[in-house]
């Protein structure tokens, strides 16, 4: 499943294209034959804005080639935009704008998967066979990513997964070449539970009657019960439902302390929950705070307590401050959105692994360097868990508040949930 708004597959959400032009001075290339003239113009503007300073003379060492798979067109276009922007800025950050690491030029080749697993396999094969990349990164869609995982094993190349969230990526479908900087669905569920669940708390749930809705609630419930919470009702309206009255009535009758919602799509229950005065009756609504575009649909949820994977004001560290400033500088004063820091984290993880391996590009040496490796990111310290290569990371307990100058409710930090608190179950059974 694709990475998405909170609710679809138990996760979060959202959004254009950034093409990294081929250039000797930037050591960055892009392959995207379906790019529109507008996209090409955007890419040219971006390339000009990010042009690296003249490199040092010591750039004759073997290049480090990185193939990035992303949804650069189609429904998940925004995922690709945010991730590739973040990845590009991550390489600039770690190389101080030169795109050269200890004399090794870094070459980035972006391929558009079009959010189609067969296309993702085709593009990944091209990166591995023709371009001879040292690393794969991606993809925006869990379906695309799952299709590509066997290729990482077949070609014996490390794949850094970002931002796809399906548990099976570091679970049933995992192999030793897979590392994930993005969080997985169970991390979202654990964070959601950690934000509200404790001994004696009564919780109701609302999710679509589908695999992603029921799986999301199951993971959340598992985590919340461990923290001492109890469940008074679980409501599963049809995935295409537009009238939630019977479900909301049962929630009101159950009188929970919290209503935890897993949802995605245009038929969201937010307005009806407000109309039926769920919060006014003393029931607190909780869910994941998604990207900025999705937050603009949640003005009825001011006061909600939930969790966030990332919002630009939540992490307090120098890398995030650099990212926010740089993103504003490059992209018309825009702040980095939900998946931008993930792209940057993937870049920083690769750079740290290569340095830790002493620039020995043997894959087994790289894997050994990455297992258990800690590295700094815009979200603070992350660590690749040795057992399944899932990056443990902080998440944020938040409240949605109304602020002047914003046309959406802003996630306000209640507390940072550290990596040990949000660690998901190990599901790879390896």
From TrEMBL:
<dbReference type="InterPro" id="IPR051010">
    <property type="entry name" value="BCAA_transport"/>
</dbReference>
<feature type="domain" description="Leucine-binding protein">
    <location>
        <begin position="63"/>
        <end position="402"/>
    </location>
</feature>
<keyword id="KW-0732">Signal</keyword>
<dbReference type="Pfam" id="PF13458">
    <property type="entry name" value="Peripla_BP_6"/>
</dbReference>
<dbReference type="InterPro" id="IPR028081">
    <property type="entry name" value="Leu-bd"/>
</dbReference>
<comment type="similarity">
    <text>Belongs to the leucine-binding protein family.</text>
</comment>
<protein>
    <submittedName>
        <fullName>Substrate-binding domain-containing protein</fullName>
    </submittedName>
</protein>
<dbReference type="InterPro" id="IPR028082">
    <property type="entry name" value="Peripla_BP_I"/>
</dbReference>
<feature type="signal peptide">
    <location>
        <begin position="1"/>
        <end position="26"/>
    </location>
</feature>
């Amino acid at each position: 499943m694709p990475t998405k708004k909170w609710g679809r597959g138990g996760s979060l959400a959202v959004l254009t294209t950034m093409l990294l032009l081929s250039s000797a001075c930037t050591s960055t290339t892009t392959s995207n034959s379906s790019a529109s003239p507008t996209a090409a113009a955007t890419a040219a503007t971006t390339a000009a804005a990010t042009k690296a300073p003249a490199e040092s003379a010591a750039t004759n060492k073997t290049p480090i080639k990185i193939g990035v798979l992303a949804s650069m067109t189609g429904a998940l276009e925004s995922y690709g935009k945010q991730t590739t922007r973040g990845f590009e800025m991550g390489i600039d950050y770690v190389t101080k704008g030169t795109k050269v690491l200890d004399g090794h030029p870094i070459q980035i080749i972006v391929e558009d998967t079009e959010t189609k697993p067969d296309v993702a396999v085709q593009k990944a094969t091209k990166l591995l066979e023709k371009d001879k990349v040292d690393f794969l990164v991606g993809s925006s869609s869990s379906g695309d990513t799952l299709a590509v995982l066997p290729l990482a094993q077949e070609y014996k190349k490390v794949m850094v997964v970002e931002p796809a969230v399906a548990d099976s990526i570091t679970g049933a479908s995992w192999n030793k070449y897979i590392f994930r900087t993005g969080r997985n669905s169970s991390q979202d569920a654990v964070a959601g539970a950690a934000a509200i669940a404790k001994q004696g708390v009564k919780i109701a749930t609302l999710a679509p009657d589908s695999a992603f809705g029921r799986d999301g609630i199951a993971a959340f419930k598992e985590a919340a019960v461990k923290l001492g919470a109890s469940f008074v009702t679980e409501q599963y309206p049809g995935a295409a439902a537009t009238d939630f009255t019977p479900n909301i009535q049962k929630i009101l009758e159950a009188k929970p302390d919290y209503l935890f919602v897993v949802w995605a799509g245009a038929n969201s229950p937010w307005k009806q929950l407000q109309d039926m005065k769920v919060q006014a009756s003393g029931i607190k609504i909780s869910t994941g705070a998604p990207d900025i575009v999705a937050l603009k649909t949640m003005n009825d949820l001011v006061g909600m307590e939930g969790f966030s994977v990332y919002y630009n004001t939540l992490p307090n560290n120098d890398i995030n401050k650099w990212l926010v400033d740089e993103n504003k500088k490059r992209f018309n004063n825009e702040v980095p959105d939900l998946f931008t820091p993930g792209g940057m984290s993937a870049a920083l993880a690769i750079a740290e692994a290569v340095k830790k391996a002493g620039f020995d590009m043997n894959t087994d040496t790289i894997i050994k360097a990455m297992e258990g490796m800690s590295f700094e990111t815009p979200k603070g310290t992350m660590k690749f868990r040795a057992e399944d290569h899932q990056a443990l990371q902080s998440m944020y307990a938040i409240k949605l508040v109304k602020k002047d100058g914003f046309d959406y409710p802003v996630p306000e930090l209640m507390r940072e949930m550290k990596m040990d608190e949000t660690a998901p179950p190990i599901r790879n059974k390896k």
